[in-house]
User: What shape does this take?
Amino acid sequence: MKVKQGTLGVIRESPYDRYRYVRRYRVRTQAQPVLGRLSVAVVTGANGFLGAHLVRALLRRGVHVRALVRPTSDVRVLDGLDVEVRRGHLEDEAFVRAALRDADVLFHLAALYSQRPEDVGALYRVNVGLVRALVKWAWDEGVSRIVHTSTIGVIGRRKDGRPPDEEEPFNLWATASHYVRSKHLGEVAALTWARMGAPVVVVNPTAPVGAFDWRPSPTGRRVLDVLAGRVPSFPPGGMNVVPARDVAEGMILAALRGRVGERYILGHLEGNLTLRDFVAYVVEAAGIPSPLPPPPGRLRAWVGRVRRAFRGSGVTGGGPVALTANPRKAVESLGMPQSSLAEAFAEAVRWYRDQGMGEV
Assistant: This one.
């Protein structure tokens, strides 16, 4: 079967058989649905960091939320909220279909993150296979919009080192972890369904910061490192940081205003930070000394040269060269808010300290 030139350009760099996602199902065409309002939303991963923010943002809009969580999940971040918590397994078709009935939108946030070799199979089963199934079930149940949460890690890197946008194809397969590969292929599955007519919109959050990061996320671990007086690991080319509350609003706006079959980077226009920028935000919010020594002039210039060299080298040293991004599309076409980064870092620091997760 011949692939049309330019089809799904966002995934052209990865080795996979596109048609294994679609050959079992007859292609259906339909007009792009318009989502005028939200009454009932189904949220997977509702008890996670971003899920906690999304649920609260939906409740502020008067939306009834069905939070799908595992039978043994910790749901303390949802305590006191008027949320319909349904416990079950997302692989259970009957459980998921029952939750999706009469829902306007499915926000799929649940994913598996692991760096353990023994979890490789589970990564692809959850982050790829489950996406394929959930989109089909939601489409079959007549859900008007399906918002699939991907990650900034599957946005390709530009050769000139500039922050990439949504048009940059994934070009990191050779150096990517199995987690990133599985998230990339999950995005491929979601976008393939969209080409068949399913009402799918993909969002790619950058590095969120804020309250409720109880696991914590990679960004949260970096904040906690600074609070403990340690220098955190950091991509040499920098990363885009965004208030978690803005990401939640961006997800809702993607459901209401996003175009089917497109992806939106949910980040901050001023959020492309260096390690020194990131640490400065944390120490300012916490009122603590910086773990970084002030670099003398020559050292500062040398660090800049090394950073630029790493940015274009393709060398990751076990992590991404850069996680910077250009989120202008989501800001301009969706109206994604751009809250204060300083306030988001302060919110995170307060929350970690309240939970006893601050300085050690």
Q: What stands out?
A: Residues 1-31, 309-317 have pLDDT under 50 and may be disordered. Residues 93 and 255 are 23 Å apart (CA to CA). The longest strand covers residues 64-69.
